[in-house]
Amino acid sequence: MNYEEARAYLDSRVSYEKRGMPESTELRLDRMVTLLEAIGSPHADFPIIHVAGTKGKGTTSTMIASMLTGTGRKVALHTSPHFERVEERAVISGEPIPGDRFTRLVEEIASVVEEIDAKLAPDQPGLTFFEITIALAMLYFSREQVDAAVVEVGMGGRLDSTNVVIPVVSVITSISFDHTNRLGNTLAAIAREKAGIIKTGRPVVSGVVKEEPASVIREVCRHLHAPLREAGPDFVDQYHSKGLAGGRVEVSTWRRSWPPLDVALPGRHQGANIALAAATCDTLEELGWTLPTEQLKQGLRLCRVPGRIETIRRHPLVITDVAHNEASASALVAAIPSRPEIPPSSPSPPRVLIFGSSVDKDWRAMLAILLPHFSHAILARYVAHGRAVEPSTMVEDASRAGIPVLTAETPARAWEEALRLAGTTEEPQEPASSDLDVAPLPDEPMICITGSFFLVAEMRTMMPLAEASVRPISS
Question: pTM higher than 0.85, yes or no?
């Protein structure tokens, strides 16, 4: 099996990321247990921090991994979905699994998968893309003898395929509305699904602040005798913005006041994510881990998370963000530069929104939040699979904002239109690292690409990225 054949094999498996999540009756953890046991239960070979939440779980997972890597440990990270290559789901110390190792592991696991598939009931689908890539990551981490792994939940928690691990710490970042057709239509119901990752006697760090979901997490922790630390009572943050260059965060926990923490991720919401990561490190210290503060700070300072209010070009300013629900859309508009003060005699610089979404997301609510902050909108669709909302479907709702609305059937066409609206037909400049620290000029146009992880992923591949935006967390 070569690399292309390995990719083709994985792509041939059922992928709920592409077709949408099934009814909960199709989700069963025993399949994942069987697969992992068949390859030697590699997930039991290293301590795991398990991270769930509606918003911020990927960023918080990466922050924790980056901070622990800063202490000299060999730290693994499993997140999903991926931007460009499936290897991004199995990272050690900031580096994705090499292609040759990936190929060999796919070939090894494939024979086990076929044996398990043959024993499944006729009405059960074969092992999925997600289940197989989790097994591959765990096997890779085990053989590389990592010191720890941070594992992000795919969706929900209780029935997520990652929920076969017994973590040293469980982390729940936030609870808001998303995947309501699968997780429930109240915050309490969603919280109960996320709280499914809590294990008996294992400590929990929660960033949930709304009382309705927070009370559910407290109840589950009491029932399972799981020590709980909560945002508010046990740790707080104060975020100081540096604009698009990131911010500085002051964190106080039940253990200590941290020195100022610098992060190259913009947005007030990153303060909450950093506080969660710091509180998780404090919890690990209470479990006996030695984590020098200065090394944790350095690890966080080098943390990069693609597609999170990411400045990738300048002149015009180009920002990508994977916001795909109301809460993340609100965080985006709070973080991007506000409309500059322009003399009445001067035209305002264009602010172009490229927006695409998936059919199971509340795209109407996202558009209502986003559109007032832009002068033009381009409704686009990603092409990777069939879950994208047709641009024409969104036109009526988008037009209510009173700004010009265009549609584009492909990301490439959306990019061409955005450049035209921004007043240029040439590619934006690739900025030096220092250019990212400079505030947008009053007359600098802006293009913002958001609404779907898949749209951002496809459009990021169309343009070279600024060096600072893709620096690995271990550099």
Answer: yes
